[in-house]
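Incident review: delayed structure delivery

Summary: a single-chain prediction request sat in the queue longer than the usual turnaround. Root cause was a stuck worker, restarted by the on-call engineer. No data loss occurred. The affected request and its eventual output are reproduced below so the record is complete for anyone auditing the incident later.

Affected input:
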Amino acid sequence: MALVLDDRCRAAVARRRSRGKDTRVFVRFERGSVRAGIPWVVATGWVQQRRLPEDLEVQRICDADVYLEGRIARYCRRHDLVVSAARLGPFEWLLMADQYAADLIRVWERSSSTAACDEGPAPAPETSDREPIALPLRREYRVYGRGAR
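Output delivered after worker restart:
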């Protein structure tokens, strides 16, 4: 399990490298919009700074240096996270393929001891009287207009 750069992201890295630009990528937690009900998001993008904070872990993935926050790096040791890219004309940016990545990481941190997950086998699930935490991942689409049923 690891952080995965999909085909679009690898193509974006190749285009950026061919132009002589820096291909370093960051993945970290950032504050979202509390008013919109999104307190934390997993943000990804191109590194703009020459000096980065010391607490970021560096991984070499597909000829690009990826700087990960510690919490995200621990999660990636057990699960996959996919970084993708989008393009509109000359503008290109990176994004997380899973928009619920921040929620998944927070639930994983609460459900397991992250210190124990750094090394060794996965911890056994705890049994409790509480119901498991469920994320709203299902969407329902309704079609309105002519010919809709």
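Verification: Confidence is low (pLDDT under 50) at residues 119-125.
Action items: add queue-age alerting; document worker restart procedure.
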